[in-house]
Amino acid sequence: MAGNAPTASEYVVHHLTHLNNTGHAQKNIVDWSVINLDTMFYSLSIGLLTVFLLWLAARKATSGVPGRFQAIVELLVDMVADQAKGIVHSAESRRFVAPLALTVFVWIFLMNAMDLLPVDLLPRVWEWIYAAGGGDPHHAYQRVVATADLSATLGMSCGVLLLCLWYNVKIKGVSGWVHELFTAPFGAHPLLWPVNFAMQIIEFLAKTISHGMRLFGNMYAGELIFILIALLGSTATVFGFLGHVVAGTIWAIFHILIITLQAFIFMMLTLVYIGQAHEGH
């Protein structure tokens, strides 16, 4: 940040504040009038990059000895196809669900991987651009990890929910699904209809919220740890600098596992929930 050096709390708050349509820090966790512009930019940009990379792999695929890029993509395709085949038993549905799961995995992995960039790199660039345009760099907020934004992860989990509802209707029919809503899991007695319906709605909500919260919680915690480690480098001491380098390197190496695992878990839960939509109680 330009001007006087920020305190530790100001540094953390600044890095955890989104660039939004209001131009100010968001005060409420849930505020439907606020749009996090940085989350929109990075999620859409990385989404387009994901589609481009997968298209490029398909376009350059050869039947001979594959190159490194093609080999990596083929491993991912085989992995996702095997998982989808074991969970979604409809071959017709897998024609859409398997590519979707592959796209979700790569997309979330790349969004998560933004956490591996130096904490101050892109925010500093944005501060310079903001100041060059006449703005106050102290208000040049920028968060680059879209999956550390609850609105993004819940948005993706809501998309999975809509797919589950679609497949429930497509596979079971409207009447069949409505019958299931009111008769499962406790039985078809009319006195149990309200209980069954409430249980079904709670199940859908619990799946959706936990799906999005799990990814958000892990990535938010990882981002916060990177910010705290970056504070070590601002102490202007040899021990602070060494602590920053050593701790940052160790956490970055460990975080590679986290970002991969979280992308895999989100993809697997997407397959599981869509697979459950194909099954009757």
TrEMBL record:
InterPro entries: ATP_syn_F0_a_bact/chloroplast, ATP_synth_F0_asu, ATP_synth_F0_asu_AS, F0_ATP_A_sf. The keyword Aminoacyl-tRNA synthetase does not apply. The keyword Nuclease does not apply. Keywords: ATP synthesis, Cell membrane, CF(0), Hydrogen ion transport, Ion transport, Membrane, Transmembrane, Transmembrane helix, Transport. One of its GO terms (cellular component) is proton-transporting ATP synthase complex. Pfam families: ATP-synt_A. GO terms for biological process: proton motive force-driven plasma membrane ATP synthesis. The chain crosses the membrane at residues 40-58, 96-114, 150-169, 224-246, 252-274. It is a multi-pass membrane protein. Gene3D superfamilies: ATP synthase, F0 complex, subunit A (1.20.120.220). It is found in: Cell membrane; Membrane. GO terms for molecular function: proton-transporting ATP synthase activity, rotational mechanism. HAMAP family: ATP_synth_a_bact (MF_01393). Belongs to the ATPase A chain family. Key component of the proton channel; it plays a direct role in the translocation of protons across the membrane. This is ATP synthase subunit a. The gene is atpB.
